[in-house]
């Protein structure tokens, strides 16, 4: 069995990472880049070999390996075990291939940074963690990778830690995803306790299908996991961290915050789709959230001026599509879109990085302009990416993947309550509008950046090492879609076929009523759906041309400050909302209670004891009040209001003795 | 031949004891305190003598003798202390004034013999 | 005889009260002597003539002389008695007196007030006392001598005035 | 009636003989060194003679003195304490002209004599005489520094008046007991009829004992007197006087069940004593006053054991006495070693600042002693307090245990406070000059070893030494019946 | 010969040697001003070898109690010097040594004033701790329990930082005072046993079989619980901890956080859950609620601190809340989680205190706002700091998470809402840990007046070992779980009783 290759796949970047961290000072910039890219490249090679082996195998069994038993006790059994099936194959290919290209790019891009070893250390560690995540066959193991990528994301966002804004952004990303992670952990615990202490994915899924898990458990677990996935994938209401995460170096944004990590949520749900399909309400929630997110993010992207932020919002929006697909039940489409999105979004980020590097780290699109002449190659690559993102019909990969989603949503229906369902038409309409908006904002970007006169000085050339990945990715963004095409055009279904074993396993297992809304192919969908899906981006492009393509000088805002803008602001509005409702109160309360209240109480009690002892002193020194006239002085501890009379101690003591005698006699006589 | 019964004697002794006690508590002059103590001791002696008579036992009177010895040495020591205090220039034999041993209420130089009121606590 | 007993008891008490209420120390000492003499009568009536004699000789005699001696040494005068008057205001003695009364009441409550159980006790002469003193209690006499010795040393120790040159 | 016999406890004999020799020696020529040496030899002789008594009481008879292991044990503790105190005061007495050595040595001897007499007495007369010999001697000792420190005289005056008062009360109580029982036997008065007088007698004797033990609320004199006295005399008050009176308390009441009329009184006094002692100690800035307050609290702890008859009681009381004696003596010895002639004793806690760096030996030993007093290992006090709690648990004195725990926690605070002060930074001005004082070094070392060995191997000390319980349940029934009848 | 008494006494004797080596006369003979340091290092190494021998030594019988030593001590009261070792005590002793070695290596060499006394006290504390872990006579246990506090008190009070004396007294009062309650419980148990069987003994194994009424056993258990709760610490009685940890000298902070607190957890396992299983299960809801409160409260306060050591101290409270939670879930998994959490917390927090102490040694401040970014100047220290901070925030794959996960799992079985609340602590853990990371490691450097030196490679290697332990604990805890399983008293009562050392 080629299972042994799986740990090797992970080990390679992991070893590179360890070496990079340990010998950070002794490794040259060049060596660091070489080591990192080499290790990821090696993984890419292995994953290709694995792909070959997996696809050419005769039976339908996935490759599996159990490294060791993490723990086995009476009621718990968790393994460090990996599994390669078509779903994870897709993911490792994306991670290693795109990752390799990005590393290659970064080797040049970051060459001048003094912290390059740390950078590549984190990057390779990220790749390793991501591979753990996608390969894990035990949800516990998956969770290790899940948190690991979050950590790397944190480290890379805050890579330039000298600027407090960057570290703040990094922390924000980590905190928000941590909230999701905690929810996910709860989901895992719920599954684990209900499913007999094992988180083996196959075990969980079979428990779902055999009805071992009650529906409430399934719904609860699905909800918890969904929250985790939403946070990781920056969906409503967790979307605020991703735009800020652009504070990291651009290759990071490309790899982590566009191509791979943020899609981990999608991957998780695709992995566990049987669990989710058994929870229709959660599916509906997922779809609606995805739809809302894609609309909201697209609108927000429309009014952004920062190039990377536009891309970030577009990432959120595209992830929204994937969640819509997942919510609809067509996880294959979601995965397909994930792949194409990885290509074109990585391309867009890398080109954006190339652009930004050339214009002296200016990220405001309105300060760029006229770049086409200075860097036609980059512009071409960007254009390719933009078209793929917009989903221009026929020639781009984005079109096919988006089309697959749209055509499936139309016939679906989403359960809201027993006997009440939400029609797929509505969501389809929204998604179509989203497609229009996508084309609008990305071509707004294109039209502002490239034509016209340069606004800022442009220097240097894009190095070849950076250009090669761009070219590769551009090719993939355009051609990557041909593996899966709608029947209406050419019936090519390489992708879904590849995933077939996994899908077969699922559809066989799921009870009929749970899959009522699932439609894998668009066969039953009307033709005009395809047409509409093709027209919407083109329309977006046209409108963008009308608005920004011809007009000079540059318009700085979207025309008509009305509804659309306020809607568009929603994206950043949530941020402010959270700040006011969560962050500031938390900070204030924490500040308020920075001195331990309980400590104060107990120390206060201690002080009271001392006061009490003062009282005993007063008894000693005090007087019957009858002894003699004396100077009445307040004690320094005025609160006791005890007075000290200049009196005779001897008689006072004697009086106590006699009083004690009287009391003792009385008590004895009354006994 | 006695005309006093034990309980009569005890009655007298109790009254005498209380009187002496009141003297110790009320008087401030050391001399008077010593005299009051003597009265109390006598009350105790009376009890012993009366009880000895009651039981027809000489031990009571032996005890009386011991009390006498105690009274003598206590009075002697007490008067020596009075003289000592007097010699140190205490304005009077007031048992109350000039407390050099105010304990925690001490303030200022203990040798000055002039405590200032009001300082409850040092440090 | 009954009358004599009552009288001496009354004198004893009145004397004691006078002692604690006098302002001039010498008066108090004299009243104390009266008290002790009356007490000696009580002792005699209780059948303890030896005790009565000792009370008169040692207590009213020797011990009281000590007091007088010290009073003379102290040279107390008018200011002292005025001060005593100042100190003997009701608010000064009310509390202690109450306390003493309370104790007295408690004591009286405990005492048996029924007319006494036994017949009148016999006389215990000096001979009886002496026999037991130098019989079973001979060691006690020795101890008492140590008591007196320590009283002596203490008085001497405290009574010395100056640092003695060594 | 008292049976005539010739029984005389031999330590008493040694002490009185020593006193005579000393008197003769003083009469011949005054010499501090010789007086002290005679004192030391006398004490050693008394120690050596303990347990070898002259004559013996015929069995089944009532005697003036009693010989049992309890008396021997307390006698040994007292004489050992006196030896330590003599060593503590050696330097001051031998070298400082302000301290008249001869009288001090003499009074130390007579005081010890009185204490030992109390311990061995089985009769009111020797008990009372011992008590007064002790008291009058203390009077002289307390005032012995008066020429340099006028507090001495004042402290003596307070002690005189208050102890006179308590003696009178005790005597009156003893008289009532005699009146009711016709016997001077030193034990709870039990007779048919007149329960009121019995009660009054017991209570008055108890109050007298409580005064000397300084149980709250009869404790007020102790801090004043101890502070006014020289340090060794303060130790004498805290040790000798307390051991003697405590042994008498145990002998008087026995360790069995209390008479019914004291069953609420004793716990009340214990609670007041523990809390009052500890709380008062909390505020002290003077070391001797603090020790006075802590000794008050320790009396409270001990009384819990007295109240808890059972299998553990006897051994626990024994070991607690040993622990208290050794630890407190150690502290006093260290205080003495801290001072130097012509320099005031280190009686202000603030004077001890930085001792860990200036005189680590003293600091470490003092910490050990204080921890032992606080009941923390490895000192002997740990086991002692453990035993006290064990007896309390055995008898289920829940309230008392709660108070004990509270008191111990408060106690910890002030003991630790001293250690805390010692760990502070030293100010050079505060460090008194060091003098050679081999006797104190030896004393401190020996006491330290005792404290540690006793703490680690307390088994040997755990011997049942107490006299048989004087008050057994049937007696109570008699009492109750007689009272109701 | 059983190595157990040697294991207990060796550090103490070594401490005496270290102390003597510091005498002026000895110092001239040894010609080495660092003699105490060297001696204590040597002692710890020997102790480690001894422990290794004890670990590898074949078990004296088939039961889970691997070693046994007993001599009578105070026979009159049935007290014996009895030591027994099972997996739990063995692993905690290992933890003690693994932490005290780096502490001595890294942090005590700087002690210049009275170094001999310092090392003596330090090693005495270790003796107390090891004794606590081994004693199976209740009196002996209490003896060691009290004994370990004294040297620690002096260490804090004399060698600590600015507000050390108040902190030391607070530490001592709390731990000692609660110890008295435990003493009451011990005696109550002994007396109850005496009443039932007429045998006076303090033997853990015999007492475990005491028949108790439910209310009495609850009462006795709560006495033990309070003492352990103060030590652990549990929230309302935690107040000594932040002060003590903050003010203690570095090595003592390490020992306090790393090991001393574990005696509380150890006690809860051995003397609450195992000695009073039924009472513990009835008490469990309260204890678990306290655990959750501790998790949240500690984390919350940790978020607001600017003093690094204080921040770490409050985070300890949060982490140990998991221990409490786990112990009282009543399941084996929870117990194992608690043990793993104890080990992991000991390593991570101990190391964090080491790092905080090193920072304070170099920069003379613990205020995050005045430290600034250290990564540029001290990448090794900062890297290690980052690692341990990440461990403390509960990163899967590191030891802390393993413990927390098991505890949460066991808690979920009992009460899902409680588990959810406890899990919320993980979010707060992220907040305080990353706040620290971005406060002192990954932040813009402040203008530092003088250059600071990084950890040398040797010291880094020591920390590296700790990191490796944490990683192993996180990735492969199974052997630890098997190794450190606590043994119930009944086992020895059945098989090992009366076995005398060969």
TrEMBL record, chain A:
The keyword Transcription does not apply. The chain crosses the membrane at residues 6-24, 31-55, 87-107, 119-137, 143-161, 182-201, 213-231, 252-270, 282-303, 310-332, 338-357, 378-400, 420-443, 464-483, 528-548, 652-670. Residues 136-415 form the NADH:quinone oxidoreductase/Mrp antiporter transmembrane domain. Pfam families: Proton_antipo_M (PF00361), Proton_antipo_N (PF00662). Keywords: Membrane, Transmembrane, Transmembrane helix. It is found in: Endomembrane system; Membrane. The keyword Ligase does not apply. Residues 70-120 form the NADH-Ubiquinone oxidoreductase (complex I) chain 5 N-terminal domain. InterPro entries: NADHpl_OxRdtase_5_subgr (IPR018393), ND/Mrp_TM (IPR001750), NU5C-like (IPR003945), Proton_antipo_N (IPR001516). It is a multi-pass membrane protein. This is NADH-quinone oxidoreductase subunit L. It comes from Acetobacter musti. The gene is nuoL.
From TrEMBL, chain B:
Keywords: Cell membrane, Membrane, NAD, Oxidoreductase, Quinone, Translocase, Transmembrane, Transmembrane helix, Transport, Ubiquinone. It is found in: Cell membrane; Membrane. Its EC number is 7.1.1.-. It catalyses: a quinone + NADH + 5 H(+)(in) = a quinol + NAD(+) + 4 H(+)(out). One of its GO terms (molecular function) is oxidoreductase activity. Residues 98-123 are annotated as: Disordered. The chain crosses the membrane at residues 32-51, 63-83. It comes from the Bacteria. It is an enzyme of class 7 (translocase). It is a multi-pass membrane protein. Residues 106-123 have a biased composition (Polar residues). Its main location: membrane. NDH-1 is composed of 14 different subunits. Subunits NuoA, H, J, K, L, M, N constitute the membrane sector of the complex. Belongs to the complex I subunit 4L family. NDH-1 shuttles electrons from NADH, via FMN and iron-sulfur (Fe-S) centers, to quinones in the respiratory chain. The immediate electron acceptor for the enzyme in this species is believed to be ubiquinone. Couples the redox reaction to proton translocation (for every two electrons transferred, four hydrogen ions are translocated across the cytoplasmic membrane), and thus conserves the redox energy in a proton gradient. This is NADH-quinone oxidoreductase subunit K. It comes from Acetobacter musti.
TrEMBL record, chain C:
Its EC number is 7.1.1.-. Keywords: Cell membrane, Membrane, NAD, Oxidoreductase, Quinone, Transmembrane, Transmembrane helix. InterPro entries: NADH_UbQ/plastoQ_OxRdtase_su6, Nuo/plastoQ_OxRdtase_6_NuoJ. The chain crosses the membrane at residues 6-21, 28-50, 56-76, 97-114, 134-158. Its main location: membrane. The keyword Transit peptide does not apply. It is a multi-pass membrane protein. It holds the Pfam family Oxidored_q3. The keyword Cell membrane applies. It is found in: Cell membrane. One of its GO terms (molecular function) is oxidoreductase activity. It catalyses: a quinone + NADH + 5 H(+)(in) = a quinol + NAD(+) + 4 H(+)(out). NCBIfam families: PRK06638.1-1 (NF005162). Belongs to the complex I subunit 6 family. NDH-1 shuttles electrons from NADH, via FMN and iron-sulfur (Fe-S) centers, to quinones in the respiratory chain. Couples the redox reaction to proton translocation (for every two electrons transferred, four hydrogen ions are translocated across the cytoplasmic membrane), and thus conserves the redox energy in a proton gradient. This is NADH-quinone oxidoreductase subunit J. It comes from Acetobacter musti. The lineage of its organism: Bacteria, Pseudomonadati, Pseudomonadota, Alphaproteobacteria, Acetobacterales. The gene is nuoJ.
UniProtKB/TrEMBL annotation, chain D:
Its EC number is 7.1.1.-. Residues 122-410 form the NADH:quinone oxidoreductase/Mrp antiporter transmembrane domain. The keyword Transmembrane applies. Pfam families: Proton_antipo_M. It catalyses: a quinone + NADH + 5 H(+)(in) = a quinol + NAD(+) + 4 H(+)(out). InterPro entries: NADH-Q_OxRdtase_suN/2 (IPR010096), ND/Mrp_TM (IPR001750). The chain crosses the membrane at residues 6-28, 35-55, 75-93, 105-122, 128-147, 159-180, 200-221, 233-254, 260-278, 290-307, 319-340, 361-384, 399-419, 440-459. It is found in: Cell membrane; Endomembrane system; Membrane. Keywords: Cell membrane, Membrane, NAD, Quinone, Translocase, Transmembrane, Transmembrane helix, Transport, Ubiquinone. It is a multi-pass membrane protein. Belongs to the complex I subunit 2 family. NDH-1 is composed of 14 different subunits. Subunits NuoA, H, J, K, L, M, N constitute the membrane sector of the complex. NDH-1 shuttles electrons from NADH, via FMN and iron-sulfur (Fe-S) centers, to quinones in the respiratory chain. The immediate electron acceptor for the enzyme in this species is believed to be ubiquinone. Couples the redox reaction to proton translocation (for every two electrons transferred, four hydrogen ions are translocated across the cytoplasmic membrane), and thus conserves the redox energy in a proton gradient. This is NADH-quinone oxidoreductase subunit N. It comes from Acetobacter musti. The lineage of its organism: Bacteria, Pseudomonadati, Pseudomonadota, Alphaproteobacteria, Acetobacterales.
